[in-house]
Each structure stands twice: as C-alpha cells, then as structure tokens.
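The material for today's practical consists of a large collection of protein records. A record pairs a protein's sequence with a compact description of its fold. Instead of coordinates, the fold is spelled out as a row of discrete tokens. We will come back to this pairing of sequence and fold again and again. Here is such a record, shown just as it appears in the course material.
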Amino acid sequence: MSGKQIQVLVVDDSRVAQMLLINLLESDSQIRVIKAVDTGQDALDFLKFAKPDVVLMDIQMPRLDGFETTRRIMETQPLPIIICTATTDPREVATTFRALEAGAVACLGKPVGQEHPDHDPLARSLIETIKLMSEVKVVRRWPRSRFATAPPVTVNDTNGDGIKVIGIGASTGGPPILQTILSALPKDFPVPILVVQHIAHGFLLGLVEWLNETTGLHIHVAAHEAIPLPGHVYFAPDDLHMGITRTGRILLTRADVESNLRPAVSYLFRSLATTLGPNALGVLLTGMGKDGALELKQMKDGGAITIAQDRATSIVHGMPGEAIDLGGATHILPADKIGDSLITLVKRHQASEGIQP
C-alpha cells in the first residue's frame, strides 16, 4: 500500500491494551489507527460506516467475543482480520482458531510493555503482519467449487517402498489450511505426519486441541524419541527443531535457528530428505518468507513426492511460491485438494504400523 497509510480498527475491551496497540502501531508511519472500540458490537456498528484496511481484534470480550464478531464481519463485509490475544490457556486459545476457521487471516500474541524482553520481536511481528495482511484481497473462506477443475494426482512409481512419513510446513494462514487437509484424511490413514507451523509462543496447545476437536486424527505436540504412529499428527514444540532419526524416532533439538526460526520447516524437510529420501513426502503451505522452499527441492531431488499450495488458496504465497520457483514442487495444488491427494499418494503403503526403530 505504498503512498497510502494502512487504516486499522482496534477492537479490545481493555483501554490499557488499546493505548499500547495504538502507540505501537502508529510508531510506524505507514499505519494509522482510525478507531479503537471496546466490544465486538461496537466494531460491527463502526463498520457500517467505515471500511478499514485491517481489523485487529482481541478474542476474549464480553457479550460478543472475537470469534462471533469475526464470523459476522466475514458474512457481511469481509475484511482482513488479525486476532491479537494475550491468553495462552489452551481452551481459550482454541477459540482463536475457531476465528481463523471463520475467516480471520492470522493470530498473534498481544505485545507486552517496552520493559519486557519480548516486546521488540512481538512488536515487529505485529507491524509486519498488519502490512502484509492489508494487501490480502480475498479473505473469505474459499468456495469448494473453485477446485472442481483441479488436476488429479497420480502415484509416483519411483516410490518403491511406499511413503513412510509426511512432513508439512506452514506459516501465516496455516492453521485453517491444516484443518482442511487433516479433516479430509481417514482415522486409519496409514502414515504419520510431522508438522512445523510457525506460531506465536503459547498458541500451540490451543491449536492442537482445536485440531483434535475438528479432525478425525490424533494430534499431538511431538515428544523427543517418540515413534510416530499412522493416523497421528505431531507438531514441533515451541523453540525446538523437529526431524526424524534413522531409527524412525522423532528428533527434537535446540540446534541453531534457521532464518530466525526455531522450529524451522527447513530443518524438518532436510531431515526427511537425508533420512528417508524417496520414502518421504513433503507439503509446503501458505506463509511469508522462504522457510522450507530450498529443502522441499532437496526432498524432490532425492526422489520424494512434494506438494506446494497454489497461489489462489494461499493467504501468503511466499514459502510455496518460492518452492515452485525453485522447481521443488512435484504437484501444485489448491488447499481443498491436498488431503485427497495424500490419500491417493500413500494408497500403496498399507503397513499397520509406522516407521519402526
């Protein structure tokens, strides 16, 4: 939005939080807070007469919470909505992901005071996300009819021993895409899935709980040296890289950050490429930056099947777009087709147990 300030509506029932957010956002000359309101209903009333570029919304508010407010906005006049919350209780954070399911484009931790050591990274993340999300043109959940013409996916015949592990990487916009994909898989899906999702600290348990409630699979925060089981999904914990050992166990490590990230998709994909070669499958989803793009190509070069999400269904096409530009994607697919494609691609892998130590 060069040459024009990004107009933001702040929705938060705490006046202290409102002032903190206003001061933080307007410290950047490209952003202007046009209004701060106390409740979801106040936001709906304001939006009858104005159209900001971005809505920054708390999740826990009296009477009309962030989820219900998001749902109503998205049904009437879709706008880029960023959920910004301080809660880390898994049950309450799960409501945040319901708001993403309803159409919010991102969720972030609420910035803390300047004296807190996390202030600067949280502030940078919020400002960067607002700038990025202000450019999102379509934020309503996509109609399934859009994918009616998606090409079918065929099994790669070079994958002789079958796919043993699927690795998925996602960032901005990832949670609802992950829900779409995992919901399409049967409970007896014959392959374990390892996921790196870039997410604010404290949100992971809520994401796991939400996915457990809304998909048919078993969703976990990964544990070091656990054996990944078929039909189970394992998320990299906060501040730990995740990979797979040659004995088939999950590896968690505090190895150096990669591209300022830990966990990093790059670490997971590189581990799968090195350890499993053609018997792994990589999926790179929506997200800003380049994390995992080069390593997805490494997986493909090693004989693995790779999938990159298409531009039309990505909130941000940075990571998958970079992988596509590098020639790292065997298939380029809309979000709604990835789950069915995974079923097709692993159909010859009928073992009742995952990788054995």
About this structure: The mean pLDDT is 87. The two ends are 52 Å apart (CA to CA). The chain has two domains: 6-133, 158-345.
